[in-house]
Automatic annotation (TrEMBL):
It comes from Qipengyuania qiaonensis. This is Alpha-hydroxy-acid oxidizing protein. InterPro entries: Aldolase_TIM, Alpha-hydoxy_acid_DH_FMN, FMN-dep_DH, FMN_HAD, FMN_hydac_DH_AS. Residues 1-382 form the FMN hydroxy acid dehydrogenase domain. Belongs to the FMN-dependent alpha-hydroxy acid dehydrogenase family. Its cofactor is FMN. Signal peptide: none annotated. The lineage of its organism: Bacteria, Pseudomonadati, Pseudomonadota, Alphaproteobacteria, Sphingomonadales. The keyword Flavoprotein applies.
Length: 382
């Protein structure tokens, strides 16, 4: 199977599985406990149908929209995800360059493998930083200051990771950051020589946004579950979020909001946007899917705050359903991580291009010429 054989996101997943050692693939692909919520994140879109109009004169359509003050060519964002150089040697650099080429938002994680400053110098496209609140207050202040100086467009505070979900695939494989060659997985690493050679002989694996403050930034191997459970601040509350918003002083979002009550609190503290997200099903298994919660949250705060629907997006029609349900845009991580793992920047560009074509085709078949016309009347709930 080659990159040219990938025609949807699931095809990229198949190619990524062939090219990655199984502990690394399972880190991308896996989720918490029984992975019920991860599966529901995508299947929730099947509960509604799009209602098309015909003879609508769709020779010219406009897929652009404004997200958090910046124009985006598509109503689609690339969610921030950690450890990207574990999946391909170019990591966040490849994603940043692909996002800029297509004129869409992307984000980097506190646990990114390229620095805030490097990514800022690489692209002038819209970009956000995903902040994990650490127990080390000096680290938190440093990350915010560095993002301000690098002129990031927005800060997204992740609010659903005060402890780690139980990621059983990672427990079985022994996956750590940086990845270790365990005896159990040695054959998998040996039979993926391209990945293994890039990892061994490429630049040293680092978490450069952390390495001035914690050992885990300098190459000390640790599981993600242990990192979250020992390094992140379990006391984080609404007061913490409000202080971070004030310290940052720019466009501010909360990532991980899943209830109407929390959406209302986000409005009250002055957040500019919320990401309806369950962390890709990697935290609380058995929770609702973001799309399941969209209508309830939109009814509570629609028009008062921007709403990003994050999770389970695999098709352009999923983005269209999100917008018709009240979201400003749709976003996802695995939708480009599989492609990054499969083929680096070329893979990410092909994945975005496929989703772009699906969005454009879907709009034409629905008889809409702009994303503003994707209103609730375009959906029917089963």
């Amino acid at each position: 199977m080659k990159l040219a054989d990938c025609h949807n996101i699931d095809d990229f997943r198949t190619l990524a599985k062939r090219r990655l050692p199984w502990p690394v693939f399972d880190y991308i692909d896996g989720a918490a406990d029984d992975e019920i919520t991860k599966a529901r994140n995508t299947s929730a879109f099947d509960e509604v149908d799009l209602v098309p109009d015909v003879l609508a004169g769709v020779g010219s359509i406009d897929t652009s929209c404004t997200i958090m003050g910046r124009t985006s060519a598509l109503p689609l964002m690339l969610s921030p995800t950690a450890l990207q150089r574990a999946f391909h040697r170019d990591g966040e650099r490849a994603v940043a360059q692909a996002a800029e080429k297509f004129g869409v938002w992307f984000g980097i994680s506190s646990l990114a493998t390229h620095s805030i400053e490097e990514i800022a110098a690489l692209t002038g496209g819209p970009k956000l930083f995903q902040l994990y609140v650490h127990k080390d207050e000096g680290l938190n202040a440093s990350l915010i200051q560095r993002c301000r100086e690098a002129k990031f467009d927005a800060l997204a505070l992740t609010v659903d990771t005060i402890v780690s979900g139980k990621r059983e695939r990672c427990l079985r494989s022994g996956f750590t950051t940086p990845p270790r060659f365990t005896a159990r997985a040695l054959w998998s690493y040996a039979t993926r020589p391209r990945w293994t050679l890039d990892y061994v002989f490429g630049p040293k694996f680092r978490l450069p946004n952390l390495d001035r403050h914690v050992q885990e930034g300098t190459g000390k191997a640790v599981s993600i579950q242990d990192y979250f459970n020992t390094m992140l601040d379990t006391k984080m509350d609404w007061g913490t979020a409000e202080r971070i918003r004030q310290d940052w002083g720019g466009t501010f979002a909360l990532k991980g909001v899943m209830s109407a009550a929390d959406a209302r609190r986000a409005v009250e503290i002055g957040a500019d946007a919320i990401w309806i997200s369950n962390h890709g099903g990697r935290q609380l298994d058995g929770s609702r899917a973001p799309f399941d919660q969209l209508r309830e949250i939109f009814d509570a705060v629609g028009g008062e705050i921007e709403i990003i629907l994050d999770g389970g997006v695999r098709r352009g029609t999923h983005a269209l359903k999100s917008l018709a349900g009240g979201a400003t845009a749709a976003s996802g991580g695995r939708l480009y991580l599989y492609a990054l793992a499969a083929a680096g920047q070329a893979g990410v560009e092909r994945a975005i291009g496929i989703l772009k074509e699906e969005i454009e085709r879907g709009m034409r078949l629905m008889g809409v010429t702009s994303v503003a016309q994707l209103t609730p009347e375009r959906l029917r709930w089963r």
